[in-house]
Every structure is written in structure tokens, then in C-alpha cells.
Design brief:
about 0% helix; about 45% strand
């Protein structure tokens, strides 16, 4: 097990390449702002209990494992504990290779080979994550390369778990939201209702959510007033969707930049040999 530690005077980030290419810890002034990954979870080789993990080549659920693309239908097997539908792609459950690393930057990669993986993602691709730490920010660059000689569906996303306190607040502007059924599958796209509107800062404890929002500006602000800390999240194209996950009774909430609406990676084609790339910045400041 190798942990890559990136450190500046104020921010410390630990990466666990062997556990789904995940961020295992994110601290500011010595205090965790994201869920801390336990050693037993790092040893498991899976990143689903991490501080943050990559979503490649798709985010959220593909209903019943039915992937429709370019007139073809592909069947995918469930891959997530306790969930009947394939979820969150491959990256979180595989080891990533270290390409380079120093005290403030690292790059890791995962090569997906579909051969012999019946019911898995049927297309060959390479995913890369680059991390760069500066005095007031962490920049994460996500990339996916289509290694097939045909057009394929290819998405990207990042799934951070922010620590949730009584006064934690979130602000982000979106245009629409997907209502879901009992299995968290999207059923209807509607304008954002008042009770889910975060255009102005509001406490996350006021809602229970696990929904994908469309028409996102790519910007979000998270506030911890009691800690006098602010985190500004800014995502480039192609991240114009965001999943907000506020589960009941948990000490965290999630603001997930993603490249496509839940279940709709089939609407995101990538040409042979092409790369899809996006950047997510976590910028820290004092209130």
C-alpha cells in the first residue's frame, strides 16, 4: 500500500492509488474537511469509503445494466455492494498506477481492459488523474482516453464527501433537477423546486437529497461558519451536471461534479483516439 502525500503550509492531501485512485484524506490547518478513509478501507483496494474517488467512465446508476449506445444495447452486471444497478463505473474498484509524484503534485492512471470481463464495461479506455497542490487550493484534472477504433460513451466525475456539521452551508446555481424513484433512478426532469434551491447559501441539514441537477454553472461554495472556513469549488467543462447527496443520519454530504445526467452516459460519445478532460478546483479561504 502506497500513500502519496501532498503538503503545503496549510493544506495536506493524501492519495491512495491502490484503493480506486482515491483521495484518502483532505486536511486544512490540520483539520479534516472531507471524510477520512480508514486503513481497512485502503487495504481493501476499493475507494467507495474514501474522502473522494473518481467516477469513470460513468457516474451514478445505469438502470438494470442496460446501456444503449449508437443503436446497440450492452448488458452490464451490478458492481456495487447492495445496489442492483451498475454504479459509478470502474475506477473506484481498481488499483491505479503512479506515473509521477512529488511533494505538491501527482499523476495516476488506470487502464481498463474489457477482455475476459463479461458484463463489465465493454470498451477499452485509459483514465488519468492529476493532482496539483498550491498554498490555497487543490486542482484535480480528470481525463479519459478512448482506446477503441470506434466511437464509445465516456463520462467523468468526482465524488467528494464533505464533513457535515450543524451549520454547514452550500450554495450552487442550477436550472433543473431529476426526480428519482425508490431505487434512485431518474424518472423526470423538472425545474428546481424552492425546497431544493441552493442559489443562495443554505444549511445542508435542511434537506435530504440524492439527485442530479442539470444546468450547473460549474461553481459551488461550501461554508463551515463555526470553523470560519470557506471552500469554493469550480469545475470546467465538461462538468455541467452536479449530484447533491445529503443522506439522513450521516456525518457527510456530497457535491459531485459530473459530465452527464444520471444514466445518460450513452449521450456522451467520444471519438476513436480522443480524450475527454475536465478540471476541478478546491479553493480554501477564511470567513
Amino acid at each position: 500500500m502506497t500513500i502519496l502525500s501532498l503538503v503545503t503550509a496549510r493544506i495536506a492531501v493524501d492519495l491512495a492509488p491502490s484503493a480506486g485512485g482515491a483521495v484518502s484524506r483532505f486536511r486544512v490547518d490540520g483539520i479534516d474537511l472531507l471524510r477520512r478513509m480508514a486503513s481497512i478501507d485502503i487495504d481493501s483496494g476499493r475507494g467507495n469509503n474514501a474522502a473522494a474517488y473518481p467516477l469513470v467512465p460513468f457516474s451514478n446508476r445505469i438502470a438494470n445494466g442496460r446501456l444503449d449506445f449508437e443503436g446497440e444495447t450492452f448488458s452490464l452486471k451490478p458492481n456495487w455492494p447492495g445496489v442492483a444497478h451498475p454504479m459509478h463505473g470502474d475506477g473506484w474498484s481498481h488499483s491505479w498506477d503512479i506515473l509521477r509524484a512529488d511533494a505538491q503534485a501527482a499523476e495516476i492512471a488506470y487502464l481498463h481492459e474489457p477482455a475476459g470481463a463479461e458484463g463489465g464495461w465493454p470498451f477499452r479506455y485509459r483514465a488519468r488523474q492529476s493532482y496539483r497542490l498550491q498554498p490555497d487550493r487543490l486542482t484535480v484534472t480528470l481525463e479519459i482516453d478512448n482506446l477503441e477504433d470506434r466511437v464509445v460513451p465516456a463520462g467523468l466525475g468526482l465524488h467528494p464527501f464533505f464533513l457535515r456539521e450543524q451549520d454547514s452551508e452550500l450554495a450552487c446555481s442550477t436550472e433543473a433537477v431529476w426526480q428519482t424513484d425508490a431505487e434512485v433512478l431518474p424518472v423526470k426532469r423538472v425545474p428546481v423546486p424552492a425546497e431544493w434551491n441552493f442559489s443562495k447559501p443554505r444549511r445542508v441539514n435542511e434537506v435530504v437529497l440524492d439527485n442530479c441537477f442539470d444546468g450547473w454553472t460549474g461553481k459551488a461554495t461550501i461554508l463551515w461558519p463555526s470553523r470560519r472556513l470557506r471552500l469554493d469549488l469550480e469545475a470546467s467543462e465538461p462538468f455541467r451536471h452536479v449530484v447533491i447527496y445529503v443522506p439522513p443520519g450521516q456525518p457527510y454530504f456530497c457535491v459531485e461534479p459530473v459530465s452527464h445526467a444520471s444514466g445518460q452516459v450513452g449521450a456522451l460519445p467520444l471519438a476513436p483516439g480522443a480524450t475527454r478532460r475536465g478540471e476541478i478546483v478546491f479553493r480554501i479561504s477564511d470567513l
